[in-house]
Specification:
By secondary structure, the protein is α/β, with parallel strands linked by helices. It has a single domain, classed as TIM Barrel (Alpha-Beta Barrel), CATH 3.20.20.70. Strand 4 and strand 5 form a beta hairpin. Helix 3 packs parallel to helix 11, helix 9 runs parallel beside helix 10 and helix 10 packs parallel to helix 11. It is globular and about 55 Å long. The protein starts with a strand and ends with a helix. The structure holds erythose-4-phosphate, phosphoenolpyruvate (PEP) and manganese (II) ion. The site of erythose-4-phosphate has 9 residues, from loops. It comes from Streptomyces milbemycinicus. This is Phospho-2-dehydro-3-deoxyheptonate aldolase. Belongs to the class-II DAHP synthase family. Its EC number is 2.5.1.54. Pathway: Metabolic intermediate biosynthesis; chorismate biosynthesis; chorismate from D-erythrose 4-phosphate and phosphoenolpyruvate: step 1/7.
């Protein structure tokens, strides 16, 4: 197996507007304008009060008094099956949060990669199979995963479906927040306990969609992104002078930035200055995704210099994206041993510096998939094609997710 590397895209300014990396090539600009108009008229998916609540909870994590548990699909899909999965995944995240909270004696904020995770950055603009070259799949908000010219053609009307599907997912999550059916023994009275309401997050990648859903907070007059509570900027679009950072700087939501092993302290200091000039705990999260083989070498200097600058950024570990490997058959996978090793190193680095290891960011599903390898009921290389359904990156299945929650609870509690 070979490691799958990532290289941040180089930006180039176009006119006075910052360059937006990783955007689809929409075939019909008039249709894009029409869709943007439709989205501008839709009600907000999340309220400013909810986003402010998430920010306050993240501020507690940033000051060492809570943890963030972010998780869900790499790429959500449209359709009824995905809605059932969203309910199951929300239940799994709540269970994991309970495990982590009991093991660490800290409140754990569960945040789904859900209700908006429909756009994907890709390493290559096209994909070639058996001599046929087509545009890469960029998430259900852009095109379809099937390998035909019709399915891969970017269709802006999919952004309206992304909005509608997000609204459906949110309905289910809100219902779960009210009754919490998936936490064993949970009753209305137990809601006071370690399980928090679940909120939603996604990568703010598709700027036509995100910009169309920016709303004004009637209480403050501020601008906020109404597409999700917590938005993040990916490793491939985190250029400090790029359009994604400009977008995030212009909204009041809590924002996160993915940070890979090629990041420099100066890049993170510049991002902190642009995204969190007021140094307000809860506003900015750095999600580090270094890879088990690089984290010990790369993370200490980044954390050391950013925290020495006075930035109150929350630090969270994504042990998935630096540990992707491709099998000889071309399937992307990840080993539980690499994932747990990166989490262990993440905690050790923060403990050594005296900063707070503030949580986890995971790709997972409650379904019994065979996409990541290992675990207490191990998935073996020969199992991979038995139930591999991800349209993008390999996810932990239910058992592997719970394994990781128990492992992390133990590590956080003892290190
Ligand atoms: O999360 C998704 C992937 O890491 C990202 O889209 C890159 O995947 P790719 O290398 O298959 O394009
Ligand atoms: C693309 C992703 O991550 P990253 O930007 O860290 O590569 C992702 O979270 O699916
Ligand atoms: Mn992914």
């Amino acid at each position: 197996m070979t490691p799958t590397g990532t290289v941040p895209t180089v930006t180039a300014a176009v006119g006075s507007r910052p360059y937006a990396a990783q955007q689809p090539e929409w075939p019909d600009p008039a249709q894009v304008r029409e869709v943007i108009g439709l989205l501008r008229d839709r009600p907000p998916l999340v309220s400013p009060a909810e986003t402010a609540r998430v920010r306050a909870r993240l501020a507690e994590a940033a000051t060492g008094n809570a943890l963030l548990l972010q998780g869900g699909h790499c790429a959500e899909e449209f359709g009824a099956r995905a809605l059932r999965e969203a309910t199951a995944n929300a239940g799994l995240l709540r269970q994991m949060a309970t495990v982590l909270s009991c093991g660490t004696a800290l409140p754990v904020l569960p945040v789904g990669r859900m209700a908006g995770q429909y756009a994907k950055p890709r390493s290559r603009p096209t994909e070639t199979r058996e001599g046929m070259e087509l545009p890469s799949y960029r998430g259900d908000a852009v095109n379809a995963a099937g390998f035909s010219a019709r399915e891969r053609r970017p269709d802006p009307r999919r952004m309206v479906t992304a909005y509608d599907q997000s609204a459906e997912v949110l309905l289910r999550i809100r219902a779960g927040n009210a009754v919490r059916p998936d936490v064993p023994g949970a009753t209305e009275a137990a809601v006071e306990g370690p399980v928090e309401d679940l909120y939603v997050s996604h990568e703010a990648l598709l700027l036509d969609y995100e910009r169309a859903l920016v709303r004004t907070d009637p209480a403050t007059g501020g601008r906020y992104a109404s597409s999700g509570h917590l938005l993040w900027i990916g490793e491939r679009t985190r250029q400090v002078d790029g359009a994604h950072v400009e977008f995030a700087a212009g909204v009041d939501n809590p924002v996160a930035v993915k940070v890979g092993p090629t990041a420099t302290p100066d890049e993170l200091l510049a991002l902190a200055a642009v995204l969190d000039p007021g140094m307000r705990p809860g506003r900015l999260t750095f999600v580090t995704r270094m890879g088990a083989d690089r984290i010990r070498e790369v993370l200490p200097e980044l954390v050391g210099k950013v925290s020495a600058s006075g930035s109150p950024a929350l630090w969270v570990c994504d042990p998935m994206h630096g540990n992707t490997r491709t099998t000889e058959d071309g399937a992307k996978t990840r080993w539980m041993s690499d994932i747990t090793d990166e989490v262990r190193a993440f905690i050790a680095v923060h403990r050594a510096i005296g900063t707070h290891p503030g949580g986890l960011h995971l790709e997972l599903t409650a379904d019994d998939v065979t996409e990541c390898l290992g675990g207490s009921t191990p998935v073996r290389p020969e199992d991979l094609d038995r139930h591999y359904t991800s349209v993008c990156d390999p996810r932990l299945n239910r058992g592997q997710s719970l394994d990781l929650a128990f492992f992390a609870a133990h590590l956080w509690g003892t290190h």
